[in-house]
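Renewal narrative, Specific Aim 1. Our central claim is that a sequence can be written position by position from structural information alone. The example that follows is taken directly from our test logs and has not been curated for this report. It begins with the structure tokens describing the chain, in the order in which they were read.
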């Protein structure tokens, strides 16, 4: 058995591929757009893989975080269900003072797909 390292996931609005790039670094493909700057944090619930997907200086930063469940692969791809959290982080122009109200908004998208082990 080998641990899964390649995930193909679909949600209502998202097609996501998560796994290592050719150099072995984590990357995310979201709706055919590649994000190479991916942070990965281990938690008791699984890995959290995050990438900035949109940046509008002095207005907001949008980030996508995928909960990556641990999966053992024995003979081919295994089905998985998980979630992606899209967070919008409000920012302000320097010198305009602090923002008022909720600073981060969240949208959660259910994902289904497969996990597999890709040999690198």
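The sequence written for that structure reads:
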């Amino acid at each position: 058995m080998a641990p899964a390292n390649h995930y193909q996931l679909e949600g209502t609005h998202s097609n996501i591929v998560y796994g290592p790039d050719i150099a072995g670094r984590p990357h995310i493909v979201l709706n055919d757009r590649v994000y190479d700057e991916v942070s990965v944090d281990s938690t008791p619930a699984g890995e959290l893989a995050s990438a900035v997907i949109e940046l509008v200086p002095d207005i907001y930063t949008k980030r996508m975080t995928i909960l990556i469940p641990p999966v053992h692969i024995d003979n081919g791809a295994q089905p998985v269900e998980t979630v992606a959290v899209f967070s919008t982080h409000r920012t302000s122009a320097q010198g305009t003072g602090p923002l008022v109200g909720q600073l981060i908004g969240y949208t959660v998208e259910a994902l289904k797909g497969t996990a597999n082990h890709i040999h690198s």
